[in-house]
What we know:
The structure holds 2 protein chains of 2 kinds. By secondary structure, chain A is mainly α.
Amino acid sequence: MRTTPKWLFPVLALLPVLGLYGCVRVYPIIETLRLSLFQWNIISRRKPFVGFANFIELASDSLFLEAIFNTTIIAFSVVAITIPVALALATLINSRQGLRRSGIYEASVFLPHVVSLVPAAMAWKWIFDARLGPLNALIGLVGIPAQSWLFDPILSLVCLIVLCSWQAIGYAVLIFLVGLKNVPDALYEAARLDGASSLQAFRYIAVPLLKPVMLYVSVITLISSYNIYAQAFVLASDVQGAPGHLVRVLVLDMLENSFRNYRVGYAAAEAVVLLVIVLILTGAQFRLFRDRSRA
Amino acid sequence: MSEPDRPSVVGQHRAVGLVIDAVLCAVSLMMLLPLVFLISNAFKTPPELLAWPPTIIPHQPTLDNIVSVLRETPLFRWIGNSLIFATLSTASIVSTSAIAGYVLGKFDLPGVPVIFGIIIATAVVPFEVYMIPLYLNVQSAGLLNTWPGLLVGYLIMSFGIFLVRQYVMTSIPDELLEAARVDGAGEGWIFLRIVLPLMRGPLGALAVLAFFQAWTAFAWPLVVMTNKETYTLEVGLALFQTGFTVDIGRLSAAAALALVPSALFFSLMRRNFVRGVAASGLKE
Lengths: 295, 284
């Protein structure tokens, strides 16, 4: 016991985890990068190296371009809706801090975030339903004709954005609340003594101090919106067997190429594009962070 | 604030407070309304489902939808599958994160910075990016439609290792470990009896996150588990709703049965969803 070398425990403890990490994380990532340079359709034994041919083909693949366009629109719209709404809600909830009500507000805003994706999408599917949905009935009251929300290529995008924002807001509110609680009361106190209104205090004290948190939530929301799949699968999939309009998102296009068209190399190239997008977003976040701390 | 507030200012404050409460009540209601309707639709008869305006409390509540869903689908089986999957995934993530985070945070081994760098670098890679090679491996190992095959995607979490390491470095003093070593305690004993109990807070938060992640997983279980009997809840529901003969009442019944317990559980645990963010140093 006394003679066991000092490095024995950490090495023995770490090795299994690292082995696992290599097998289920590092290796598949490398494999994705490698496969993206090959043409391979699972079944065939031939797997010719094609260089960047997959990427060149992607650049003119109308389905892929549609997918990346849709996904980008969804991701940026969700952020554009989520961040301001969540910031406003968090500020209001924070101003009622200490009252029992504030916990109830917080919980009800957060609840949609923790509802699993599929049941949540099913709830909204009914709301948007062209024949039975309350949304059409509601807009009918003000004289707008009924829309086929989930079948129209543009409207179904809108529906997805609404659903994803509804789910993203709760998380953003929760994080903003943490940020707001960390703003020192003395700053507000000083602003009040200088005659600032609470709106001014919010604009010139809370918002600048929350900037890093806003940046963080924006990037998290963007990245997770780039990965949406379940929501599109449920919301825009076949409605009771009728051929619905599919909102083509990136992950859906990728899985279709891989599992329906058996073009694994091509799908891997799409995965690499997704990775590059995520890396750019993460890089931008770090960049902006650093600029801020230098300023 | 020595000077007493004038009555008009107090009145104004109260009015502003009331307006804020009104806005927040309205927003809370709007956020909850889709779920409220989902649950209420589960208990409605077909004619009432068509009624306008939609009722929140059904006039003639019926259990037909729920009974028929439970007869047509192995819903409880799916819930059980999801529970087992999420529990095993959580156990694996919590234990691997605890041990790796502790070692990476407290032991000066050559290569630790490199290892930690790799973990951080791979942390930003979304699961969807590497799920195809992972699937091919699972397939060639003959593990499709098995628990190990499903779990492979959810055994570790880079963020968990990061979280534990951060906590260990800032909150567990070296002196404590040294004292135990001087007393002759073995490293394994120190980890299990001293370090692990101290990490209960971050590990609890991590467990909730891991459970949530597995519970809501979709793409991976969809491609790996392809038997009706082995579906997880999310996949089972998603495929159930694409069926030909399914009406809104039964869809809502299935969805409501699936979401009510989990949503309540996770929203009670909501603090755990931000503890990680606080730990990653963003709170300043």
